[in-house]
Amino acid sequence: MPALDGLLIVVAVALAAPFLLGLAPGVRMPAVVLEIVAGIVVGPSGLGWVEIDATIEVMATLGLGFLLFLGGLEVDFERLRGPLLRVAASGYAASFALAVGIALALAAGGLVETPLLVAIALGSTSLGVLIPVLKDTGRIDSALGQLVIAGGSIADFAAIVLLTLFFAGEGGPGATLLLLGALLGLALVVLAVVRGAQRSMRIRADLLRLQDTTAQIRVRGAIVLLVGPVAAPF
Length: 234
Prior knowledge:
With 234 residues, this protein is an all-alpha fold. Among the domains are: 1-61, no CATH class; 74-167, no CATH class. The protein contains 10 helices and no strands. The longest helix is centred in the last third of the chain and has 27 residues, at 172-198. The radius of gyration is 21 Å and the shape is globular. The two termini are 29 Å apart.
């Protein structure tokens, strides 16, 4: 049986961080900041109370997927188009161009050996940090909040694609692009199936009947949607 001591410390920190900040409302600090600092303190780089084992890796992956899943629910797709989408995409393009310039300058000075990898890292962001901050401050539904989420979504997705191409294996970038295309095609098929299921009165009636029983069918469906992308071998 895997040891759960480290996981216990992690979940205790996750409980304590927002709780302690709630006791001090005058401290205007997002809970995620305190969680990151506490993680550094108790982790291998600090006191060493927690070591990264298989249990924590699995929980961390599922936790990140759950956070991104909830973040997706906060996106107003009716607003995520037109000028907002163009501004977000232009912002990422400008950020990545700036990151490439900085990385090339560092490479010219002999400070880095892989400027493209550095540029990708500099141009990326983390929705896992942005979403809690916007949510806790009540600005996630504002125009600025939706713009930040749009920009973060584009940066996250672009970083994944660029890193996949950068670390392309023996198949080369062509095989990687084919794999990404297959993943996109699969996503479109799933979307078409879900849209079709939404129009089915029989399926809708079945979901309504099961959602308030012990089956909790909608909760189980949400877990499938959460675990599916995390477990996908892409």
